[in-house]
Amino acid sequence: MTSSAIAKVHLMRHGEVHNPRRIVYGRLPEYHLSELGQKMVRLSAERFKEWADQGANIVYLACSPLTRTQESAAPITELLGLEAHHDPRVIEADNYFEGLHVDKKELLNNPKHWLKMYNPLRPSWGEPFKAQVARMAEATRDAARIAYEIGGPGAEAIIVSHQLPIWMARRSAEGKFLPHDPRSRQCNLASITTFEFSDLEGKNRPTVSYCEPAASLYSGIIQLPGS
User: Fold this and answer.
1) Contact of 160 with 14, CB cutoff 8 Å
2) Which residue of 9, 82, 102, 179 sits 20 to 30 Å from the alpha carbon of 108, by its own alpha carbon?
C-alpha cells in the first residue's frame, strides 16, 4: 500500500441491512445490519487491517450517525483500534419516499407521487445531487486533513457512509455529470472507494480507486435506493 499521495480517504459503504419489508429506509433510525451484512463489513475491516499490516498508516475513522453505518464501523474499531467519530455530513441522502415500500406500480399509479418525479436531474424526490457533493467533499477533505495532522504525509482515513453520497462524491471527483442511471452505480455493499489527495487545499482532483472485499457475498442480494 505504498503511494505518493499526501493523504488518502477510504469511503466505505455499509453492509446489507435487515429489511424484509423492502422499505426505503433512508435516514430512518434502527435499521440494523443483517447477519450477512455483518459478515460483509467484517471482510472490509479485514482488508483495512491487511493494508495496515502492509504499512498503510490508517489513523482516523468517521461514520454517518445512522445505525447501519455505526455497526459497519464497529469491526474497524475492533481490528484497528480507531474510535469512530460521527459526522452528519456523510449521512444518507434525504428522500421523499423514505419509509415507503416503493415499486414501479406504486410510483405510476399514485398521483400524489407524480410531482416528486418530474425532474430526475435534480432529483426532485430528494436532496439535490449538488448538495450531497458539497457536504461529502467538505467531509472528505476534512478527513484527509485530520489524517495528515495525526499521521503526516501519506496518512489515511476511513469514512463509513452510504451508496448515493459516495457515488456523488466519486462522480464529482472524476469530473462526471451528477445525474445518472442508478443501475450504473459502482458502489456495492461494504465496498471501498478510495480518494488519493495530492494536496489538501482542493487545487487538484483526487484520484479514485475502488474495491469490493465482500464481493463473494453478493449473490442474490436485492439492493434498494435510499440505502
Assistant:
1) yes
2) 179
pLDDT tens-digit readout, 188-211: 999 999 999 999 988 899 999 999
User: Given its phi and psi angles, is residue 168 left (phi above 0), alpha (psi -120 to 50 degrees) or beta?
Assistant: alpha
Which long-range contacts does 49-55 make (Cβ < 8 Å, 24+ apart)? 49/79, 49/80, 51/1, 52/80, 54/1, 55/1, 55/2
Average pLDDT, the chain: 92
Instruction: Give the relative orientation of helices 67-80 and 35-53 as an angle to the nearest 10 degrees.
Output: 40
C-alpha cell at 119: 425532474
State the DSSP code for 95: B
**Residue 216 in grid coordinates:** 463473494
The confidence score (pLDDT) of residue 144 equals 98
C-alpha cell at 179: 445525474
Domain boundaries, the chain: 7-99+127-217
CATH class name, domain 7-99+127-217: alpha beta
User: Could you read off the pLDDT of 70-105 as tens digits, one per residue?
Assistant: 999 999 999 999 999 999 999 999 998 898 887 767
Measured torsion, CA atoms of residues 224, 36, 33, 42, in degrees rounded to the nearest 10: -120
